Amino acid sequence: MAKRIEVSGLHAYYGGTHAIEDISMTIEPRSVTAFIGPSGCGKSTFLRTLNRMHEVIPGARVEGKVLLDDEDLYGSSVDPVAVRRVVGMVFQRPNPFPTMSIYDNVAAGLKLNGVRRKSQLDEVVEESLQGANLWNEVKDRLGKPGAGLSGGQQQRLCIARAIAVQPQVLLMDEPCSALDPISTLAIEDLIGKLKGQFTIVIVTHNMQQAARVSDRTAFFNIAGTGKPGKLIEIDDTSKIFTNPEQKATEDYITGRFG
Amino acid sequence: MSSETGVEATAGARHRATARRMSTGRAGDKIFVSAARGSGIAVLAIMAAIAVFLIWKAIPALQDNKANFITAEEWNPNATPPKFGIAQLAFGTIVSSLLAMLIATPVAIGIALFISFYSSRKLASFLGYIVDLLAAVPSIVYGLWGLAFLSKHMDGISEFLNTVLGWIPLFGGDSPGKNSIFTASVVLAIMILPIISSITREVFLQVPRANVEAALALGATRWETIRLSVLPYGRSGMIGASMLGLGRAMGETIAVAMVLTYVPGINIHLLEDGGATFASNIANSFDEASATGRGALIASGLVFFTITLVINMLARAVVARRKEFV
Fold first, then answer.
1. I want to staple A103 with a disulfide (CB 3.0 to 4.6 A). Which of A142, A173, A240, B150 is the partner?
2. Which of A93, A97, A113, A201 would best serve as a mutation to test chain B binding (most B beta carbons within 10 A)?
3. Domain count, chain A
4. H-run or E-run covering B278
5. Successive 10-residue mean pLDDT values, chain B, 326 residues
C-alpha cells in the first residue's frame, strides 16, 4: 500500500523559467517527509511533480526521473491520470467539490474508478471518514453540502476524499496554512495516524509542524530571485533540527533568514 | 483634518478647510442616492407605462372581438365582425423558440467546452472571436439567408426527419416543406448560439482553479474533470444562458417573419409549411391593420409580454433551486 519514491536529476520549468534544479532524493514508505524552505524555493512545485500535477499548468514541464517502486512516473507509456490515482494530493486551501454532498465528495474518486455498488461505496465512505477523523462529526449529515463544513472539517473531508481511493502516496501542500490552531492539531494527529498506511509528503511553512509530524525533513533554498530552487539537504528530522550538515539549513531553522 | 492645526493658518484658510470637511462626500452622496433612486423608479415607471399603454390600446379591440381571444386560432381582426385569437401565435412562438433552444444549447455548450478546455490558446481566441461575430450579424441578414439559402436546402433534412421520426406527431405530416416552423427554429438556433456559448464560456472561466485541480488530483480524465468540477459549477449559468437564448429567440421578429409562410391554424406537424409567432404576426400585419386590427395586435403584444415575463421568472426559479450547493 505504501511505496518508496526515488527522484533523480529532476528539473521543473514554467515556460522559460527554471523553477527547480537537479533534485535527487529518496522518500521512504510509511513515513512522513516534510519539505521546508523559504517562499518561492520550489517545494510546492517539487511536490506537484510527484503526481504529475505540475504539468497541468500551461507551459509547465519536467525533466528527470521519479521512480515509484521502480516504475518511472515520467515514462513515455505512463498516463498522468493513472499516476494521480496512486499518488493522492491535499491542497493548501480545502477544495471539496462545492456542488456535492459530503458523501459524494468522498465517493467521487471511487466512482471515477468505476465503483457503483451502493454497499461498497457506503463502506468506503465510512471507512475514509473514520480514517480522516471526521466520521463522528458528519455521520448525521452526509447528504449536506461539503462546502458547509468548517475550514478544518473541509480539509479533513479532502483528506478523506484522497484516501478513499487507497493511494500509495499522499502529498500534502501546506494543508494547515489556512486553518486555525485547533484544526491544525487535528490534521497533525491525523497525519501521525495515516503514516502507518501511506507514504506521506508534506510541504509546510511551519518549522514546528515539520518537527512535530515528520520523520525526515528536506530543506530547499533558492540562491536569489529568478534563480531555480535547490534541495540543500535531506536527513532525519531530529538531525536537521539539531545538527544539520549545511550552514544554510542551520541559518534557516534558527531564523537567521527566510 | 490636521491641516488647520498649524498656528499660521489664517481665518480664511481655516474657514475653507472647515467648509471642505463639512462637504466631504455628502453632496456627492446625495446626488448619487437620488440618481440611483431615480434610475430605479424610472425602470418601474417605464414598465408600468408600457403595460398601461398596451392595456389601454387593447381593450377596445378585445371588446369588439367575436371570438375567444385566448383559444381561437384564427386572426381576422380587420373583418366585420372582427374575430381573432392568439392560440396559433402562442404555439408558434413557444414551439419555435423552445426548439431553437434545444438545438442551440448542446452545440453552444460544446463550443464553450471546446474553446475553454480542449483547443490550443490561439485556436481558442480565434474561435471565440468567430462565435461572437455570429452575434453581430444583423437579423435581417439571417432572415435573407434563411429564406434564400437554408430553406432551399432543408428539404432533405425535413424529409429525412419526417421518414425516420414521423411517428412522433411533431415530425409527422404528409408534406414536409421549406418554410416551416422547423426551418425557422434552425435559423433561430444559429442566431442564439453566440449568446448561449459566450455566457457559458464566461461561466466556465470562473470555475475556480482549485475545483479543477481537486478533480485532476483524484485522477480524473479531462472529461471527468469537466463532469466533476466544471458542469456542476456552471449549471445555473448554463440554464441562465439557455433561458436568455430562449428569450432572444422569442423576441426575434424579422428573420422568422421572412422564413415562415403564413397558413391559418395550429399545425403540430412542425416540418410542414406554416406557422406564425407573435412578433412575426405583428411585423407582417401592423401596416395594413385597421384600428381594431392594431388594437388586436397590441393585445397579442400584451400576452407576449406576459409570456416573456413568466419565462424569465421560471428561469430565475430554476437557477435559485440549488442555491444550497452553490
1. A142
2. A97
3. 1
4. helix B278-285
5. 44 56 71 94 94 90 90 87 91 93 95 90 88 86 87 84 85 80 92 89 87 93 92 86 88 86 84 87 88 91 88 73 48
Shortest Cα–Cα distance, B125 to chain A (Å): 15
> Which CATH number does the domain housing residue A22 bear?
3.40.50.300
Q: Which positions in chain A have a beta carbon within 8 angstroms of at least one beta carbon in chain B?
A: 51, 53, 56, 58, 81-86, 88-89, 91, 93, 95-100, 108-109, 112-113, 145, 147, 158, 161-162, 165
What does the angle CA B127 – CA B130 – CA B131 come to, to the nearest 5 degrees? 85
Provide the residue type at B66 as one letter.
K
Say how far apart CA B255 and CA A161 lie, in whole Å.
52
Chain A residues inside the 8 Å CB shell of B208: 95
Question: For A92, which residue in chain B has the nearest alpha carbon?
Answer: B210
* Out of B210, B232, B322, closest to residue A91 by CB: B210
Alpha helices in chain A (DSSP H): 43-49, 80-86, 102-112, 118-131, 135-138, 151-163, 181-194, 207-213, 237-242, 247-253
Looking up cell 528539473 gives A11
Using alpha carbons, list the distances in angstroms from residue B221 to A83, A91, A113, A122, B250: 11, 19, 11, 24, 39
Q: Do A98 and B211 touch (CB under 8 A)?
A: yes
In a domain, A258, yes or no: no
E runs forming strands in chain B? 75-76, 83-84
Phi-psi region of A166 (alpha: psi -120 to 50; beta: other; left: phi over 0): left
Residue B219 touches partner A, C-beta closer than 8 Å: yes
With an 8 Å Cβ cutoff, are B217 and A93 in contact?
Answer: no
Do the interacting molecules here have an ipTM over 0.95? no
Which domain range does residue A20 map to?
5-253
Cβ within 8 Å, pair A84-B218: yes
A99 with B224: Cβ contact below 8 A: no
A186 within a domain of the structure (yes/no):
yes
Render pLDDT for A148-164 as a digit per residue (tens, 0 to 9): 999 999 999 999 999 99
To the question of pTM greater than 0.80 for the whole model, the response is no
As beta bridge partners, residue B180 has: B273
What whole-number distance in Å separates Cα of residue B105 and Cα of residue B201?
12
**Cell numbers representing residue A63 in the block:** 525533466
Interchain pair A84, B215: CB under 8 A: no
Q: Examine residue A122 and state whether it is found in any structural domain, yes or no.
A: yes
Dihedral of the CA atoms A201, A205, A207, A209 (nearest 10)? -60
